[in-house]
Write a structure and sequence with these properties.
The complex is a heterodimer of chains A (about 140) and B (about 350). With about 140 residues, chain A is mainly α. Helices cover about 45% and strands about 10% of the residues of chain A. Classes of the chains: A mainly alpha (about 140), B alpha+beta (about 350). The interface between A and B is medium-sized, with 15 and 17 residues.
């Protein structure tokens, strides 16, 4: 190495060609991973892929909004299931409100509908339970 | 308003993942800034495949018989329905309100997809090829739509890769294995992966075809000798037929069985489904019109419409059985025949 030149973070014997755009570490030509004009070191690329920080490396997403909506609609066929599914849908809708949705453009309308329907179902169970208890206490 | 990352190129279409596609993913195609995005969605999760314009080597369109097959699948039941209602109308001289409603709904359910199938134009299979993969694009299954999409992405691919003159294309086709190609590309070009085929003698098919033939005497017997036991035997025969169809479809996968023989179980399945649906729909109409006279109206000797359905059903079953047995016999004979001897190489030729 020539004095005054930077060396690769991963290969101290090799000359660095540029810094990683995520962590700033100097990397050599071997460690330089180019992705759509941006340069990353292998570690940042792996972290970006695993944590979904680099959108173009994502190859799968779970659609929590669709799951929440299905949990509020399909159990209506057998209404008794909504006693369990409505709180589940409400939990999923709130818990994953900020989670990445589909990579293609999608609004939060499914979450909104799921929350409204789940809330209505829970209120319905509450009112039904209250009426049932008051009926029992009146007769008892 | 935020700019959209992707523009829709196609609506979602079913991705065929084997014989049964009920739970298959739906595939759609989206246009990104520098790539195509293929989205396979199950409804609750999505898988993404990116095809960068700079990596696309070829897009191939192959004409398929999909439209014709759907025309048969939808057209024959439609003709059957219309025929059945016609026979019923002629036989009874009047069709009740319930009969008209059921007839209209069934006809509409068959006629509408048939119309859409023909308005969509010729069908095709579209494959997109890069250096390391060849991916089918199920959403481009119609020639017109595929050409529209290709016309839209062609300038983008040319902008990313440059444009080849016809002479350069001819030159590269004449010399497909360029010496400087990376090993993976050279291997991909040299030896496309072949699907291994295994030998299968067609025993399940044989049973299926004999059962179809057995339907003829049984039906004839049930016409003249109407009893509950005959009904039970008929239902059992139907169940055995369905079981044999499923076993045949599973067994014939990746085998050396001829294509014509492989098509027959599908045809039997389609025909059986059609007969069952028609019989159920007609039975419903009879029940709604006159619940007390169902037994009498379902007898082929009493009702010309039922007689017509019985005769047509039995004839087609017998025809399928006979054709199947002939094809199977031919296939087995060719399998048993000794392989032709290779021509002698070198040495003096016989005078």
């Amino acid at each position: 190495m020539v004095e005054g030149e930077s060396t690769c973070f991963y290969h101290p014997n090799k000359k660095a060609v540029l810094p990683c755009e995520a962590c700033g570490r100097f990397v050599c030509a071997l460690c330089d991973c180019e992705l759509h004009g941006q340069h990353y070191c292998p570690a940042c690329l792996e972290v970006g892929r695993k944590k979904g920080k680099i959108k173009s490396l994502e190859n799968q997403r779970t659609l929590y909004d669709s799951i929440a909506l299905s949990l509020t609609i399909f159990p209506l066929l057998i209404f008794y299931f909504t006693l369990i599914t409505a709180p589940m849908a409400l939990y999923i809708a709130i818990r994953y409100w900020n989670a990445p949705r589909s990579i293609i453009h999608r609004t939060k309308i499914r979450y909104v509908i799921a929350i409204v329907l789940a809330a209505l179902q829970i209120i319905g169970w509450g009112v039904g339970g209250y009426l049932l208890i008051s009926e029992i206490t009146r007769n008892g | 308003m935020a700019e959209k990352d992707y523009q829709r190129l196609t609506w979602a279409r079913l991705r065929r993942m084997g014989a049964f596609t009920a739970f298959a993913a739906r595939s759609s195609l989206w246009l990104g800034k520098d790539h195509l995005l293929g989205v396979d969605s199950t409804g609750y999760a999505e898988e993404y495949k990116r095809f960068y314009f700079r990596d696309i080597q070829a897009v191939t369109l192959v004409a398929t018989k999909r439209r014709m097959i759907w025309n048969w699948v939808l057209g024959v039941p439609l003709a059957g329905c219309v025929g059945a209602w016609g026979v019923d109308l002629v036989a009874t001289q009047s069709m009740g309100t319930a009969g008209m409603i059921v007839g209209a709904v069934v006809t509409l359910l068959l006629a509408l997809p048939l119309l859409i199938n023909n308005l969509s134009g010729p069908s095709c299979a579209c494959h997109l090829r890069t250096a390391v993969q060849s991916e089918m694009l199920p959403s481009l299954n119609r020639l017109r739509r595929a050409r529209r999409v290709l016309n839209r992405i062609r300038p983008l691919i040319e902008a990313a890769q440059g444009r080849l003159s016809p002479e350069e294309i001819a030159s590269s086709l004449a010399n497909p294995t360029a010496p400087d190609a990376p090993p993976v590309i050279a291997r991909f070009r040299a030896a496309p992966a072949a699907v291994p085929s295994r030998h299968y003698s067609g025993t399940a098919h044989l049973v299926l075809f004999w059962i179809l033939l057995a339907d003829v005497p049984l039906t004839a017997l049930s016409v003249v000798y109407d009893s509950t036991w005959m009904d039970v035997v008929s239902v059992l025969l139907l169940l055995v037929t369905v079981a044999c169809i499923i076993i045949s479809l599973v067994k014939q996968h990746n085998t050396t069985l001829p294509a014509a023989l492989k098509r027959l179980p599908w045809m039997v399945l389609g025909w059986t489904a059609l007969m069952v649906v028609t019989a159920l729909a007609y039975g419903m109409v009879l029940v709604i019109n006159d619940p007390d006279a169902v037994d009498r109206n379902l007898s082929p000797l009493e009702n010309p419409a039922v007689l017509a359905m019985t005769v047509i059903g039995t004839t087609v079953s017998a025809a399928l059985g006979i054709v199947g047995l002939r094809l199977l016999r031919k296939f087995r004979a060719s399998s048993l025949a000794p392989a032709p001897e290779p021509p002698p190489t070198g040495g003096p030729s016989a005078a």
